[in-house]
Each structure stands twice: as C-alpha cells, then as structure tokens.
Design goal:
The complex is a heterodimer of chains A (about 290) and B (about 110). Chain A has helices at about 5-60, 70, 95-110, 125-135, 150-165, 215-290; strands spanning about 80-85, 115-120, 135-140, 170-180, 185-195, 210-215. With about 290 residues, chain A is α/β, with parallel strands linked by helices. Chain A folds into two domains: about 5-20 and about 250-290, Helix Hairpins (Orthogonal Bundle), CATH 1.10.287.80; about 30-250, Pyruvate Kinase, Chain: A, domain 1 (3-Layer(aba) Sandwich), CATH 3.40.1380. A five-stranded mixed beta sheet of chain A has the order 3-2-1-4-5, with helices on both faces. In chain A, a hairpin with a 5-residue loop joins strand 4 (about 170-180) and strand 5. Chain A is elongated and about 115 Å long. Chain B has about 110 residues and is mainly β. Chain B has one helix and ten strands. In chain B, the strands form two sheets. Chain B has a five-stranded mixed beta sheet, with no helix packed on it. The chains are: A alpha/beta (about 290), B mainly beta (about 110).
Chain lengths: ~290, ~110
C-alpha cells in the first residue's frame, strides 16, 4: 500500500506529464497545418512537371539513346531502398510503420536474390533498420526539416542518388514514406523513382501537338529527369512531415487522455486512503476515551 | 480574340503567379525570347536571368530566376523555376552573389 505522500508525488508527476503532452499536441497541430499548406503549395509544380515529363517521355520512348533514368539500365540486380522517416520520435507508430514496410521490402528483395542497398533519410530510419541490416546501409541523411522542409534539402539527397545511379551503383530505386491522408491515417507507400514510371498521357491531352525543343528534347530530358527526382523526393518529404505531425498529434492526444484517466484513478485512491486513515485515527481516539 | 495568354510561374515551394498577361520575356537556354499569344508550342530550358511580365505594353513585374523550364502552348505559358525572387526584393549585392553562385556551380 503506497503511502499518502507517494500517491501525492505520483499525481503531481502525472500532472506535469499531461501538461507536456497536451502542449506537444497543440504544437503538433499548429505545425501540421503549416506542413499541410506546404504540401499543397508544392502540388502545382509537381503536376506541371509530370505533364511536361509525360510529354517528353512520349517522344523519347523506344529510342536507343533514351536516358537510363527513364528506361532503366536493363538490369534489376542492385536495388536501392530509400527509407524516409522523421528525425524524432514521440509520434506513435509512425516511424516503426515505415521501417516495417522498408524491412519487408528489403527482405522480399533479398529473398529474390537481389543485392540491396539502403539509404536512410531521418534518424529514426537508421535506428530502426540498423539492427537487421547494418551492413546494407550505405548512408544516412539527417540534416533536414528544421522548421520546414526546404527544396534545397530534397535536392541535396536527389543529387546524391543521381550521382550514385550514374556511377552504376544501383539499377532500381524505391522510396518508402508515409502519404498523408488525414491526421488519423497515414498510408505507408512504396514508390519507384528510378527508372521513373512514365505517367500515362491523359486522355484528351494535346499529345498531337508537336513542340519545338530548345536546345533539344534529349537535352531537356537529361535536365528534367534529375529535377523530377528532386521534386518527387521533395513531395515525399513534405508528405512525410505532414504525416509525422498528424501522427504526433494523435499520439499526444491519447497520451493526454491516458494521463487524465490516471490522475482520476490516483486521486480516487489518494482520497480513499486519506479517509481510511482519518477513520482509523478517530477509532483510536474513541476507543481510548471509552477505555477510561 | 486571344490577346492575352495565361502565365503561370511555379517554384517547388509555391505558385508565384497565375494570371492573364500580354507578353512574357523568358531567358531561354538559347537566348531570351518573348512569348505572345498564339506562340508555337515550345519546351525550353532556362538559364539564370529575368522573367519579364508585360501588361498593356509595359513591364509590370520582373522576377529573377536561377534556372528552370518553360512550356509554351498557344494560350498558356508555364514557367517552372528552381527559385524565383521578385526584382523589388532583390538587392544588387544579392543579385551578384546569386549570379556568382550559379556560375561557380556551373563551372564544377
């Protein structure tokens, strides 16, 4: 039976935990809104980029000199898995869900006899994958997403990946991240980024239009593809950031609720034992008086 | 009658401009070119320079862009840029620094 003092200490400590989690929830909610806005602001660029790329790719398809970023290297022996998580925890199952999906993917590929390399984006990705696949992790990127995800940060990762691809270090790249659906649900998604799946031409789009290319369609394409990779990564990172804050908000909300329940239960116990003690003291006094 | 075209200036972080304009001057990789309504469909890369937006025969807005792509159709002009700064926000020193960055970056 814990003493009254113990109970009082536990109640106070639970109360301060509750204060912290509810503050974190509030902060996450505010940041979630900003992250969502950022994700929406990035959408027009990605859309137009996809349209332009579809246009160009249609023209470039089936040509012998098509860029390997689009057509592939002709092999699929070496796979690169880009696992994207957050840098921080306290967000429920967010990081471990992504890590689990990445782990599944890696195991599938290994079972097929492929060589796998892992690029971790986010400290938690490395922490989660280190135990099983330490030897496969080639690099970890953690310096991103201070206040908001910046395009230059995505670009830096994309440049790294492009350089590796051009050096022939892998044939196929897939990234794993959480797509933001709502504050409650985040969908872990695997997306192939190299070779880039050509977006199907929209029906009724002006595919018949013949464009003038300056300097040449090939050159534009070689410029556009690495940029597209950066955009895809930027989009994934924004989605991830929004998902992270969504998950954190939900996790902190339930933590706050749990703390509240715990405080109620502890207060009840505290009051009961306080009353029991008073009753005990009274009985002692009365029986002492009666004995006289 | 098509006497204006729709200009969209988009950077990865936001949609900077989306409106009807009279003419746009863009710094194409093979020389600056003006885009009027009913321009032939064109895809081009951009080099660092200024995008000028014309309305009623005069420049109403200028943006410094560090590079990107432009897609022209007879009725639209979509400019995808890496980063764009309105000229009014750009000091001479900042301009020089950015130009230097881009040039040294290209020299690597």
């Amino acid at each position: 039976m814990p003493s009254l003092k113990d109970l009082r200490v536990r109640i106070t400590s639970t109360q301060s935990t509750k204060k912290i989690t509810s503050a974190m929830k509030m902060v996450a909610a505010a940041k979630l809104r900003r992250a969502q806005e950022a994700a929406e602001a990035a959408r027009p660029y990605a859309e137009r980029m996809a349209r332009m790329l579809g246009n160009l790719a249609g023209a470039a398809q089936g040509r012998a000199d098509a860029s390997p970023m689009l057509a592939g290297t002709g092999k699929d022996q070496v796979h690169l898995v880009v696992a994207m998580t957050a840098n921080r925890g306290l967000c429920g199952g967010f990081n471990s869900n992504i890590a689990r999906s990445a782990r599944g993917l890696i195991q599938e590929l290994l079972a097929q006899g492929k060589t796998v390399k892992v690029l971790c984006v986010g400290r938690k990705a490395r922490d989660n994958l280190k135990r099983d696949f330490n030897s496969l992790i080639i690099d970890t990127v953690t310096d991103f997403g201070g206040k908001a995800v910046k395009f230059s940060e995505a670009e830096a990762i994309a440049t790294k990946v492009t350089a590796m691809f051009e050096a022939g270090e892998f044939d196929v790249a897939t990234m794993v991240y959480a797509r933001f659906k709502s504050a409650m649900t985040q969908i872990v998604t695997r997306q192939q980024i190299i070779p880039f799946p050509v977006p199907a031409a929209e029906p009724g789009a002006d595919t018949a239009t013949v464009y003038d290319y300056e300097p040449s369609d090939h050159e534009i394409l070689t410029n556009l593809l690495p940029r597209n990779l950066a955009i895809q990564m930027f989009k994934a990172m924004l989605e991830n950031a929004a998902s992270f804050y969504g998950a954190q908000m939900t996790a902190m909300d339930s933590a706050t609720r749990n703390a509240g329940e715990m405080i109620n239960a502890l207060t009840l116990k505290y009051n009961r034992s306080r009353q029991a003690q008073i009753t005990k003291e009274l009985i002692e006094i009365i029986s002492g008086a009666e004995a006289l | 009658m098509a006497d204006t075209l729709k200009l969209e200036l988009v950077s990865p972080e936001s949609l900077l401009l989306s409106e009807q304009v009279e003419m746009v001057l863009v710094p194409g990789a093979e020389g600056e070119f003006g885009v009027l309504p009913l321009h032939a469909p064109t895809l081009s890369t951009l080099k660092p320079g200024f995008v000028d937006v014309y309305k009623a025969g005069a420049v109403v807005q200028r943006f410094f862009v560090s590079g990107g792509f432009v897609e022209v159709t007879p009725s639209t002009c979509t400019v995808l840029v890496d980063a764009a700064t309105p000229e009014s926000d750009l000091s001479q020193a900042c301009y020089n620094r950015r130009m230097l960055e881009i040039q040294t970056g290209a020299a690597h």
